[in-house]
Amino acid sequence: MRSGKTFSMGLSFFLWAQARFDGQQFGLCGKTIGSLRRNLLAELVPYLRSAGMNVRERRSENLLVVRFAGHENRFLLFGGRDESSAALIQGSTLAGVLLDEAALMPRSFVEQAVARCSVAGSRLWFNCNPEGPQHWFYREWILRARERRALYLHFTMEDNPALSRHIRERYRRAYSGVFYRRFVLGEWTAAQGLVYDFFDRERDAPAAPAGPFARWRISVDYGTANPASFGLWGELDGVWYRVQEFYYNSRRAGRQRTDAEYAEDLAALAGGREIQRVIVDPSAASFIEVLRRKGFRVVRADNDVADGIRVTADLLKRRRIVICQECRDCLREMELYCWDERPGRDAPRKENDHAMDEMRYFAMDLAAGDGGGFAAMSVERRI
Asked: In the predicted model, is pLDDT for residue 371 greater than 60?
């Protein structure tokens, strides 16, 4: 993370394409077109223009037309969100493709993008953060780099001259365990042990502050046969505290609750406070509808587990979110929530995870609202 790989690779890709080809098509791929524009093009396009390139974007066509040194080429934008995305790039003929965060894309999409590069002299450009050692991209491309005649470069934060020593240290402190090894050291390492291995109840779970809180939100993991967990979050001086909770285990209680009963439980947890929004498990369609009819503003949660755990860990370590000692079931799950260490798995165990899921929903919603980030500059590499 923050190594400058995205910017330096994007700049290199455009310089290579414009120097070698004229009148050709290229592919620019991200997990979504939105993330591609945000993570790559927002910083890169102004730099390309300042370097003398004429860059015209046709947003409705997801297309960039670039003219430089007498050469004009077209750059098509693609999103590789899921298996169906492979059909979007199928049929294109490309002289090269750049896949930003390739490890987050389905294998079918990546292989379809590779198959599109049939123009003589075409090249494939990949970048990504590490995942687990069983990940297909690691096994097919990183381990086989020499066999595939691929140049493999390992970037870390030390390669990014735009980051100060203070910022580097802040990122190092923000991660631990598997996240530190993957995102700071850049290792393709297996996840093992507790998910939030840095969390200490005695140190990190204070009593709920008295307030006054500026804003209130509720996060929800819905369950009928499985437990349901609701978290009440209040913002004080820029920190979001999980001050109260509702947790219901139907197996332990001996009966399941209805959507209407859960809606009353959520209203009781709100306690007459003005709830800015309720972030809900996206699969709970019927419960979402009941809440909306009761007047709550509901948003469907982002259920990306891997990214959600990383974001949650970051916010916990930076104390942007705090679990208060009154939230006993959430704290209990924090001390039990662990990685599934079976071979080939790179996810947490599906147990003791209900408060963990709704905490993750809240963290992803908060991070999406925060936005921002750091600029990443290129660094010269001599090989």
From this structure: no
Handedness of CA 60, 89, 19, 159 (dihedral sign): positive
Contacts from 82-86 at CB under 8 Å and sequence distance 24+? Answer: 82/106, 83/108, 83/109, 85/109, 86/111, 86/112
Contacts from 134-143 at CB under 8 Å and sequence distance 24+?
Answer: 134/190, 134/343, 134/344, 134/346, 135/103, 135/188, 135/346, 136/107, 137/102, 137/103, 137/107, 137/110, 138/103, 138/188, 142/188
Place of tokens 């090894």: 181
pLDDT digits (tens, 9 = 90+) for 227-274: 999 999 999 999 999 999 999 999 888 899 999 999 999 999 999 999
**Residues, the chain, total?**
383
- Which tens digit of pLDDT belongs to each residue from 3-49? 999 999 999 999 999 999 999 999 999 999 999 999 999 999 999 99
pLDDT at 383 over 60: no
Helix axes 165-174, 305-317, angle to 10 degrees: 120
Burial of 326: CB neighbours in 10 Å, binned 0-12, 13-18, 19+: middle
Quote the distance between the C-alpha of residue 24 and its chain's center.
32
Q: What is the Cα–Cα distance from 78 to 272, expressed in whole angstroms?
A: 46
pLDDT at 215 over 60: yes
Q: Is 279 helix (H, G, I), strand (E, B) or coil?
A: strand
Backbone φ and ψ of 15, nearest 5°: -65, -45
